[in-house]
Write a structure and sequence with these properties.
single chain, alpha/beta, Glutaredoxin, 2 domains, four-stranded mixed beta sheet, 9% strand
Length: 252
């Protein structure tokens, strides 16, 4: 069993702490037969979003991390072991099912992406390290790792969590315009759950330029779902696909 090392920053109700721990257990209880799993996961719950942001910015500055996102629940392994961060202030405002889905999603990341190598992305296959290349591979890697998380949940826990995660993430779909490779990769991350579960609400939420590439994008995500490539190979494949889709759109 994976040991949870819990830290609480500020005043967080015991009921909420218990909710987080029970959500984590839904995942960690499914991992007994995994050959590679962490011995422990650090879990930190923060009373406020500001307190969480302060910690992440401080850590990123000390460790030289260039990409920091503020999410309701997040996972990283910047120091070499898995850590999950929970924003009590914002997560407690969601309905319990959706909140549990977000915790469960990051718990799977801590199982299958719980070492530093998943956050140190080599750029050699892209031919360099220009800023736009760094951004593209970073975005692609987040989508590729999410594909692996959704696959784990469907196979070992419950597809219901993937459905709930899709409903939550697709709220951001109308803001994606698919005008560049980075926008296409942003869409890939948002629609990745839909390669595993039905998303009947998806087409109505997309801009026309995104609707035109949706079929091909979902087809590629399903191929990655069934592929034996590792997360990095999947990331490179997504970068190439995004570039091709963007180039084709500009020619139309």
């Amino acid at each position: 069993m994976v040991q949870v090392v819990l830290s609480i920053f500020g005043k967080v109700p015991e009921e909420f702490v218990g909710f987080v721990l029970s959500s984590l257990d839904r995942v960690y209880s499914s991992a007994a037969d995994l050959e590679e799993r962490p011995a422990f996961v650090e879990v930190a719950i923060y009373e406020t979003s500001g307190r969480l942001l302060e910690f992440l910015v401080s850590e990123a500055g000390e460790l030289g991390v260039s990409a920091v996102g503020l999410h309701l629940v997040s996972h990283e392994a910047w120091r070499g072991w898995p850590r999950i961060h929970v924003d009590y202030e914002k997560l407690s405002q969601l309905d319990p099912e959706t909140a549990a889905a977000l915790v469960v999603h990051e718990a799977v990341h801590s199982l299958v992406h719980g070492s530093r190598r998943y956050y140190e992305v080599p750029l050699g296959a892209l031919g360099g390290g220009a800023p736009h290349e760094v951004e593209l591979l970073y975005l692609a890697s987040t989508a590729a790792k999410d594909v692996e998380v959704h696959s784990y949940l469907v196979e070992r826990v419950s597809p219901r969590f993937v459905e709930l995660y899709a409903q939550y993430s697709l709220r951001d779909a109308p803001g994606v315009d698919c005008s560049s490779a980075s926008e296409v990769l942003a869409l890939a991350k948002l629609v990745a759950p839909c390669a595993f579960v039905d998303c009947p609400q998806l087409p109505a939420r997309l801009r026309p330029e995104c609707s035109r590439i949706l079929g091909e994008l979902l087809g590629a995500l399903r191929n990655l779902r069934d592929s034996r490539m590792d997360w990095l190979g999947k990331s490179y494949a997504l970068v190439e696909l995004a570039a091709a889709l963007t180039s084709r759109s500009s020619e139309e």
